[in-house]
Amino acid sequence: MIAQTDDLLGEAPLWHPLDGCLYWLDLAGTRLHRINGHGGITTRRIDRPAPLGAIVAGPAVGCLVLCALDGLSLYDWSSDTLSPLCHPEASRNAIGYNDAKVDRSGRLWIGTSDLAEQEPRGALWCWTPGAAPVLADAGFTVVNGPAFSPDGGTLYLSDSVGRRVLAYDVAPGESVLTNRRVFATMAVDEGYPDGLTVDAEGGLWVAHWDGWRITRFSPEGERTLVVPMPVPRITSLAFGGEGLATLFATSARLELAEPLLSAAPLSGALFAVDAGVPGAAERAFVPV
Asked: Which of 7, 60, 161, 186 shows its CA 20 to 30 Å from the CA of 141?
């Protein structure tokens, strides 16, 4: 554990490729955290209704694209300001933005979810710089992930309520996904697949909600490593630090019953794991 910020719903860890800082969110607490190069932690309140969604690196140092209920905005750390960008789900009620990730071609993929987590109303959007976001897939209750293979040819997505990770083929310049397939499934005692990230060897790392673990899968879908964690709800993952050698993991304490919270007092903390393999560098998103 490297930071006990008591996040209700810690999410979206991001090692910013332009400033060497680690950022992450408390979605339910509407807070943004940052650890700078000297290890100092700063927390800011984000003036948006809960829950927040995700962050990805923006086009400049200290710049983030932030997802919230009212759409996507550009956040500037130096001025602590938000500037609206787009809102592809504006026409639908009770839909929240969730995980998002920039692919190897610089496009932003955004997952959305049914806020009640009951109906398959969630979708996956693709936003190509200079164009409007387009619908890439739909029919999910909660979309988590996504993540991309090092060569950019495979997109992974957590269909969390379905307890499965899907894989698609994706081509540069194309928002159309093909060859949808089940990459991995989770047993009941493994919890639900949540956030994803990929290492430099193409291994897929999966955070388990209610599973007390992180699992690494080979590109062929074989479990190659299980990392036990001291909390049940690991939410998302990102590589960072020197040489991208550290795997950062966020966690949640939201709606944990008191006996379970007492058994896992570090719930809501940020963790660091020596993954034994470096990560694949993330890209910044340049909207235009």
From this structure: 7
For residue 191, what is the domain's CATH number? 2.120.10.30
pLDDT tens digits along 104-123: 999 999 999 999 999 999 99
Indicate the burial class of 135 (C-beta count within 10 angstroms; 0-12, 13-18, 19 or more): exposed
Instruction: Evaluate whether residue 178 is within a structural domain.
Output: yes
What pLDDT score does 78 carry? 96
In the structure, how many helices (H) and strands (E) does the chain have?
1, 23
Question: Which helix (H) or strand (E) is 253 found in, with range?
Answer: none
CA distance 25 to 108: 18
The predicted pLDDT at position 39 comes to 87
Report the domain count for the chain: 1
Structural domain boundaries, residue 146: 10-274
Q: Exposed/middle/buried for 33, CB within 10 Å: 0-12, 13-18, 19+?
A: buried
Q: In this structure, what is the dihedral angle of CA atoms 150, 155, 156, 157, given to the nearest 10 degrees? A: 140
pLDDT of residue 173: 80
Residues noted as catalytic: 194
Quick check: helix, strand or coil at residue 226?
strand
